[in-house]
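Let us work through a complete example step by step.
Step 1: write down the sequence.
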Amino acid sequence: MTESVKRLKVFSGNSNRDLAREICRCLGIELGQADILRFQDGEIRARNMETVRGAEVFIIQPLNYPSSEYIMELLIMIDAMRRASAKHICAVIPYYAYARQDRKTQPRDPITAKLLANLITAAGADRVVTLDLHAGQIQGFFDIPVDNLKAIPIITEYLKGKNLQDVLVVSPDVGGVVRARDLADRLNCQIAIVDKRRPRPNMAEVMNIIGEVKGKTAILLDDIIDTGGTIVNAANALMEKGAVEVYACCTHAVFSHPAPEILQASPLKEIVVTDSIHLSPEKLIPKLTVLSVAPLFAEAIRRIFDERPVSKLFD
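Step 2: predict the structure and record it as tokens.
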């Protein structure tokens, strides 16, 4: 009886095939062949074009807009792999949808982040790898292992290469202080906090800035830039308080309308994001710098496949 040899297979949905191909390039393998199409009524069909029997399968699929379609693609692909006898299935989700609906803020609110976790688990995923969850407790919504990777080491390396002077890391809200402190410790600088209130969803009003920003190069750090209002309001307030220049950094460039326009017109010197979400050409504004997370995900996949610790990637 011959000993079985582990096989690694990486597949991708339609949400960010460029990232999937780059991850496969880093791994030194070909992207798996899967046929994903839509019928006339909009229903989705996913079919494996190669065998996955006994293989360790990784499906790369950020869940950005249109999230409903990309979620269904992921669920159907997981089911297809399970029914095709894959040994293990890992959902690689660089951007986790509905992460901002992680708790009840009003009576009768759903907790949609938990619902999505249930769906992914029920479809047959054995593991999830994601990046900078908006709320860390979402890891606990799953009954399977979850690796929540961090983009801050990649952002730190880029910022250190710019040799910026008198740097100050700024959290655009109180909830992002831990994230800002992490970056500030890596850059060996202080932090400031923008105290704001949000009258309604997708609208933020700056109230006060906690910390001395005069004469500083301010680096605004957030996990998501959606419509851009929060970051631009914070940048305006920092400039009014005497900051020399303001940079913005985030992991997930959601860039809902009219984010590209207002970011380009803002006093921000540069907006640094990752490629966790595919950006269409009209969103690639001149002020934008896109850093790749492909090497990070490739190393995570390699370590999971080799049954080695993933914890080293958090350093």
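Step 3: interpret the result. The chain has a mean pLDDT of 94.
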